[in-house]
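ok so i was messing around last nite and threw this chain in just to see what happens. nothing serious, just curious
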Amino acid sequence: MKTTTTPWAFLDDYRGTFFSGQWPTLPEMFRITCSRYGERPCFTVYEPDRISLSYAEALKKIEAVARWLASKGIHKGSTVGVTGKNSPEWAIAYLGILFAGAVVVPIDYQLKQEEIELLLRTADVQILFVDEEKYPYFAEKSGLLREIVSLKKGIGTYIYDLDGPHNTLPQTKEEDLAAILFTSGTTGNPKGVMLTHKNLVSDCYLAQSHLTIYPTDVFYALLPIHHSYTMLAVFIEAISVGAEVVFGKRIVTKAILKELKEAQVTMFLGVPMLFNAVLKGIMKGIREKGLLVYLLIRSMMAISGFIKKLFKVNPGKKMFHSILEKASLSSIRICISGGGPLAPAVFRQYNQLGIDFIQGYGLTETSPILTLNPKEHYKETSVGKVLPQVDMKILNPDARGVGEIIVKGPMVMQGYYKMPDETRAVFTDDGYLKTGDVGYLDRENYLYLTGRAKNLIVTEGGKNVYPEEIENEFQLYPEIEQILVRGYMANEKMKIEKIEALVYPNQEAFKDEQGALQSKADIKKRIEEIIAEVNGRLLPYQRIERLTIIDEPMEMTTTKKIKRNTVRQ
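result:
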């Protein structure tokens, strides 16, 4: 009997027939999965009606799209764009482009048309797949694109109508470029991260060393799928094992909970803001049962968490089944948080309630996953254990061991598209990628983040303060919708930098029973009380000294991080 030593050991059975080399390409991976689980559900959507494609059905549509692209002159190395809301059609377009041997350019659908146009020009995109509402704008852009295809019915050529002559499709290799992903910033010269098939596929399988997934899992693709986090951790992970991908349409709590329940989702991936909102709703419901019940449940949660940590068993799933059922979370096997740091208290409470909750760390330039917290041995204050084959070091560590995180590994990008100078600037002389993030490693190779190097505040006493560490302290206060911590020059002449906070209050939290908003003075007073409370927990040099209440929410990325460079207040 063959012993499986790694989650990807089964690939040995397909090497030489479905692929050659160390890792399959993404099309080869999909074909392997189809041969194993062809009749299992692949891509599903519940809104407005439930529509689902099996793996075998998806493969037919993907190949049809690939043949059509080939008939339009798309060949190995051509760039083809896709932009739209999460949907089975988006996934078919993405894979169809790769099956045609081309390079896929996934673009943030929330960008303005002019910004999308800039990215299309930057990546030399020849054909674009786009949702119907933006179709007319790009259809009129003569000279920009050779062809434009609607992902949805109702306008233009529909993606499922595409087919081409039954010619042999080109064979790609693992070292070939698979995708160009643009990072959040789109002003100035946008940076397109070049990722090969090997980058994406190796990261997918290596992540499974710390996270066991099954063909029976149901992944929920709620966050925009163009983003590297959802693309890899939901979309590519699911198709690597034959799991189902359910596409969420709206980041609205009521709609999310309905779909989680209806689809019986087992793998729920999100960002801290989303998990904070869900947890706040659960704890609010418990508080409404009265102080005695609330204290009893919190005590039971503490016991559940203790048992889980000490004995590696999960009693919370049964202890709190009714609470999880009411919150539409009873089918969830694992929650994964990424895209930003999560407060340890949130991490702890989900685990206490019986949900295996883990978090990871990575960046677009690393495909993106570099670390994951194994559910069998998780650390609440860590962003996870470094994946196998990732060589991670701390550059110029200080007395605490804190410094810039640098990495090598099979998932590290090839560089920025047509930007050799910028590419050279992010690599060390010996070939390590400089992440721009700051943190430290413990003896078991778990990573702890302290912040972004470029956001560093240096206080009068020469102490280094990372704003993200302070911002995390506010995650469980319902009165605060957004907070941005930064340095300000308290004394220009002496170059003395102190710490300020910009806060956008949660409007709902400050309304009375009639729905009227409290006065600005009362709102500010409560925010000041919260800041004083948090300051009491911080080290003296980390404390916030100035507060500004802002009237409008700050601009955010699609993974719900504040765009710090756009805040001018």
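not much to say yet. The longest strand covers residues 480-491.
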